[in-house]
């Protein structure tokens, strides 16, 4: 089944209902489910006439918008796959991704087409299409308005690729994650159940892949009036105005963006009171943020979601389920509670072998690697919405385990399962401090520091045999507060607690600590 079939069913059952609402030049622009279906059919017809067909890959550079999803669905209708790359990663990264993906077409707005000036890899892409004003050397997608609808989607098998996205390529060679139509359908089903997607709800969406699940569930998507390339720096006012004006009932976003919303002035922040569901994910979610969200949106179900590009979601935690004993454990170095594993996924904690290829194994051999409840190790997952491999197998050797014919994804995260079957996160396996004094996991230390409201971010790291805790703190953290924090963390054997003006974070969510960049920063200052 092609995911377009589900999207078209929504167009038939809710033709006039708003599918996507976005801000355009200070006004709300609404695209209905029927509009989305009709426009994507015309774009599919135009692309097909220009030579794009089943199995082709097309690079798409465009912000989250109705135009983006019209293009994506148009590509799905003809059996082509969309390649999505983070443009903030830099030209060299883009060129490597283009060379790895070998796209047959390039679609983007006028600003995206400026890349043709500096990128030889993009110039060599055969077909070029522009969203918006006409440009030399590119077919305007506006011409699709005169095309007949491609009514029936091209038949394509469930295993045909639909989306290709790329890792950051921090090791030099980016890996392409391939989502097939079967995968998108499986992910839609688990997201619909886990996130409680209900037809007619209005969702403030910040993560592009989640919008497909919204569309398939009949949920209206509101595109935030903000530059989502820097979620930690968005102006909260325009977004909160949308929440109030458009009757938003739910939101899923990175901790960095949600922090911006709860830090807004009281009058603006009051808009959050109308929310009924709030999900924080894409980076570590500490209890302090959940508490602030619950206070700002008292009628909402507030949850932390743990997952990864290759498996989303993995576990969920309702803020109301965090007990006093859990908070005490987190303050004592027990790690970060991630909650219950979603039923659709299988999760194991195995002996930490991160950095070493494992397998192929027999099922019994994998069982022997599994650790008892309470012991810390490497988190591995399997299931229908877990990606089985990367494009051309690049990266599979170090991140996949084939055991008994089943593919397990190695998340690269360390964790443990408690007596209630809940998952606790300890940080990246590669970030664990191992020295003559034993092992220390970064989240164990960072959870303690993040209990203090004066500390915005914290990161624990080992450099040249020294254990350092770097903190990004407000002026409210005085000498007494620093001494109290050091006392609370005596068990960690820290050599230093160092304040820095700004801790480096990931580009996508602005919330995950970039440990390699931090190592360079602290190494220079040591």
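Sequence proposed for the structure above (526 residues):
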């Amino acid at each position: 089944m092609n995911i377009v079939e589900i999207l078209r069913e929504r167009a038939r059952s809710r033709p006039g209902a708003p599918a996507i609402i976005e801000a355009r030049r200070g006004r709300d622009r609404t695209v209905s489910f029927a509009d989305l279906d009709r426009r994507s059919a015309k774009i599919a017809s135009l692309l097909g006439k220009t030579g794009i067909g089943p199995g082709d890959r097309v690079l798409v550079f465009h912000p989250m918008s109705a135009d983006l999803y019209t293009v994506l669905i148009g590509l799905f209708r003809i059996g082509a796959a969309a390649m999505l790359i983070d443009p903030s990663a830099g030209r060299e990264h883009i060129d490597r991704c283009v060379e790895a993906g070998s796209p047959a077409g390039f679609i983007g707005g006028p600003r995206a087409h400026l890349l043709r000036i500096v990128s030889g890899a993009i110039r060599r892409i055969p077909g070029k299409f522009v969203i918006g004003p006409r440009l030399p050397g590119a077919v305007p997608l506006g011409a699709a308005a005169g095309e007949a609808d491609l009514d029936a989607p091209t038949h394509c098998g469930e295993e045909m690729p639909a989306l290709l996205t790329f890792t950051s390529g921090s090791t030099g060679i980016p890996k392409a994650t391939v989502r097939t139509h079967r995968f998108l359908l499986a992910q839609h089903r688990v997201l619909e159940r886990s996130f409680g997607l209900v037809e007619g709800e209005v969702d403030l969406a910040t993560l592009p892949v989640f919008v497909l699940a919204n569309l398939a569930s009949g949920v209206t998507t509101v595109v935030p009036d903000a530059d989502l390339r820097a979620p930690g720096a968005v102006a909260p006012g325009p977004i909160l105005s949308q929440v109030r004006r458009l009757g938003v009932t739910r939101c899923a976003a990175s901790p960095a963006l949600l922090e911006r919303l709860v830090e807004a002035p009281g009058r603006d922040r009051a808009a959050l009171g109308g929310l009924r569901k709030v999900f924080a994910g894409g980076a570590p979610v500490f209890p302090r943020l959940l508490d602030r969200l619950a206070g700002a949106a008292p009628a909402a179900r507030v949850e932390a979601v743990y997952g990864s590009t290759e498996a989303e979601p993995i576990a969920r935690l309702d803020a109301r389920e965090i007990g006093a004993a859990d908070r005490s454990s987190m303050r004592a170095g027990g790690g970060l509670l991630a909650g219950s594993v979603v039923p659709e996924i299988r999760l194991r904690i195995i002996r930490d072998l991160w950095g070493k290829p494992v397998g192929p194994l027999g099922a019994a051999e994998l069982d022997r690697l599994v650790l008892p409840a309470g012991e810390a190790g490497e988190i591995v997952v399997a299931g229908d919405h877990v990606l089985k491999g990367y494009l051309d197998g690049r990266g599979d050797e170090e991140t996949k385990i084939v055991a008994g014919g089943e593919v397990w994804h190695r998340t690269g995260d360390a964790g443990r399962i408690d007596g209630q079957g809940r998952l606790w996160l300890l940080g990246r396996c590669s970030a664990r401090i191992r020295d003559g004094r034993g092992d220390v996991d970064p989240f164990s230390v960072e959870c303690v520091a993040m209990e203090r409201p004066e500390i915005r971010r914290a990161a624990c790291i080992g450099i040249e045999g020294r254990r350092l805790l770097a903190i990004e703190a407000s002026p409210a953290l005085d000498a007494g507060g620093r001494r109290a924090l050091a006392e609370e963390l005596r068990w960690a054997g820290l050599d230093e607690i160092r304040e820095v003006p700004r801790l480096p974070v990931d580009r996508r969510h602005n919330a995950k600590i970039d440990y390699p960049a931090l190592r360079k920063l602290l190494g220079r200052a040591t």
